[in-house]
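Students often ask why we bother encoding 3D structure as a string. The short answer is that it lets us treat folding as translation between two languages. Here is a chain of 195 residues written in the first language.
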Amino acid sequence: MRLAPIPPAELSMEQKPLYHTLRAGIQKQFSSFKAVREDGALLGPFNPWLHEPHVGKAVWALTESLASRSVLPDEARQIAILVTGARFKAAFEIYAHVHVAREKQLAASKLATIVAGQRPHDLDEAEAAAFDVTYALGAGGVLPRATYERAHDAFGPHGVAELIYLVGLYAMVCTTLNGFDVPVPEQQDGSAAGQ
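And here it is in the second language, the structure alphabet:
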């Protein structure tokens, strides 16, 4: 871990407003996994964002924007996030969104296959469209027309746009996690349970 988590008492004046915004967002959207240490320091990508609050504020605004007007089904959204996490081998991302996907009732067999970097055989149409778009974007190059059209048919114009932006956002989140060598919570403080 390259950036030490910042206890609330050590936050700068610039960091404090973002800390409170992130803490509220974590409570609202990400309560199924541990993202806050017992001393109140933030874990996961939230800590690097606090270290650079001008960047963190912008990233969180994009995160909120994609969550607040989402048209993607929860399962498709979580599949896209997990495919991205598996592609980047981002341990914290996989840890966190396996918890979120379980909360959303995504089948354990699908989760295990996706985090192993493979395509589950039992995806429904929306899940398959999300998987294929995410996988293709992660491979690089232009998204194939047939893959784009399949997602457009499954999610409509706003949904396919959301999916593409979501993959980009989580690629950036995974890059942040990997660049700053952010481990899963039990590697930081001996506990992975709760928040």
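Translate back mentally: The chain has two domains: 13-67+181-186, 72-178. Keep this in mind for the problem set.
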